[in-house]
Write a structure and sequence with these properties.
about 400 residues, alpha/beta, Rossmann fold, 3 domains, four-stranded parallel sheet, 16 helices, binds the ligand C=CC1=C(C)c2cc3[nH]c(cc4nc(cc5[nH]c(cc1n2)c(C)c5CCC(=O)O)C(CCC(=O)O)=C4C)c(C)c3C=C, binds fe (ii) ion, mitochondrion inner membrane, Ferrochelatase_C
């Protein structure tokens, strides 16, 4: 059995620390003769998300992968059109990333959230410790390929696919799960029962998530003078979806509404509120009302104190830091609106605890046989979905990462 990194390091430390020991060679021989107890491979918590370009030179590849994704943007002749659209769009999007400091902070925040989550998980669930966070991004490094390589090198045999989108959409979490299945099959690791998979595919009204959002909203409201505070309009903003996806029965819209309602309940319905939708791309019809238009309308009604709450993403990204903080804010100021924004969940300790609690409960319920490997919601695909690809992925996950018998 080869020496693990940890046992080799301790041998070197042993040799250096004690001059009374015979020799490094004899010491190494002794360790080789009495096989080291194999280290337990970690329980993998695979954090699925879209990712973002960490640097400006990565913007082109990020957009190219995004426009190639048939689950997000189904295009005719996709392999020809996608690189063309991505190339045309790259200079504009590069400028936006330059304005927010030269890249997306998604990787930084995901890594920080994953580390905090797994430290807490080791305390909460010593039985499945050690827990290790892995990141599988859909459009930026670390991609699913990289994630599975790391898991294989660590000898992982038990993994939880944990979407970092609280609300499920076939175009986001669905796309990540399809990619996981595809890449695991291609790489010959993780798709044949060698890894036992289960999935946390949505958590829109999780109590910890709701408390973390409510905490940041209360903090934002504190910045208003007390006399004006209760009249501040809370404007929840989520990334929009094309109407044809909503009409296919995609669960995202109702799940976002569930998150918002649960937050308002936690706040005791302290303020007036609305849910609006941002970041429409292209000429087709998307779920409305649009956030920028809603601010215009509210301004006309004399509502001049508005606090934005991005509610469908758990860290800062281009749509909070550029679209809301720069573009929407400038327009709001011209209308005489005093616009603020609740901080994103980023390094919130309440949020890290929420992530750990979600995984801990999932592992316990799964081990106790109270839940299956995938939720009943995941297995029921959209009424309008006819994709055989989706059907295969979902049944593979429901079987804990094993193909159906032929
Ligand atoms: C829950 C969040 C998101 C949903 C739902 C979503 C759907 C969706 N997005 C596009 C097209 C684009 N999205 C782009 C960037 C982008 N999208 C989200 C989140 C959701 N998208 C985020 C967080 C980001 C930015 C990532 C970052 O860098 O920080 C882009 C690229 C930017 C641009 O060119 O404008 C596109 C394009 C569609 C078509 C869609 C639903 C089908
Ligand atoms: Fe998007
Ligand atoms: Fe679907």
């Amino acid at each position: 059995m080869p020496l693990t990194t940890r046992s080799a390091t301790s041998v070197a430390r042993m040799a250096a620390a004690s001059s009374s020991r015979p020799s490094l060679a004899r010491c190494l021989a002794t360790v080789r003769d009495s096989p080291a107890k194999p280290e337990k491979p970690p329980t993998a918590v695979v954090m699925l998300n879209m990712g973002g370009p960490s640097t400006i030179p990565e913007v082109g590849d990020f957009l190219s992968r995004l426009f190639h994704d048939n689950d997000l943007i189904p295009l005719p002749a996709q392999s020809i059109l996608a690189p063309f659209i991505a190339r045309r769009r790259t200079p504009k999007i590069e400028e936006q990333y330059k304005e927010i400091g030269g890249g997306s902070p998604i990787l930084k925040w995901t890594r920080a959230q994953g580390e905090a989550m797994c430290t807490l998980l080791d305390e909460l669930n010593p039985g499945s410790a050690p827990h290790k966070p892995y990141v599988a991004f859909r459009y930026a490094q670390p991609l699913t390929e990289t994630c599975l390589d790391e898991m294989k090198a660590d000898g992982v045999t038990r993994a939880v696919a944990f979407t970092q989108y609280p609300q499920y959409s076939c175009s986001t979490t669905g796309s990540s799960l399809n990619e996981l299945y595809r890449v695991a099959k291609k790489q010959g690791y993780g798709a044949t029962g060698d890894v036992e998979w289960s999935a946390i595919d949505r958590w829109p009204a999780d109590q910890g998530l709701v408390k973390a959002f409510a905490h940041n909203i209360r903090a934002a409201l504190q910045a208003y003078p007390e006399a004006r505070r209760k009249d501040v309009v809370l404007l929840f903003s989520a990334h929009s979806l094309p109407i044809e996806i909503v009409n296919r029965g995609d669960p995202y819209t109702p799940e976002v509404a569930a998150t918002v309602y649960a937050i308002m309940q936690e706040l005791g319905f302290s303020n007036p509120w609305r849910l609006t939708w941002q970041s429409k791309v292209g000429p087709k019809a998307w779920q409305g009302p649009q956030t920028a238009k809603a601010i215009e309308g509210l301004a006309k009604q004399g509502k001049k104190d508005i606090c934005l709450v991005p509610v469908a993403f758990t860290s800062d990204h281009i749509e909070t830091l550029f679209e809301l903080d720069i573009e929407v804010k400038e327009d709001a100021e011209k209308l005489g609106v005093h616009l603020t924004r609740a901080e994103s969940l980023n390094d919130s300790p309440i949020f890290a605890r929420a992530l750990a609690d979600i995984v801990s409960k999932h592992l316990n319920d799964y081990d106790a046989g109270k839940i299956g490997a995938a939720s009943a919601q995941l297995e029921l695909r959209c009424p309008g979905c006819t994709s055989p690809k989706c059907a295969r992925t979902k049944s593979w996950l429901a079987r804990g990462g094993k193909e159906a018998e032929a």
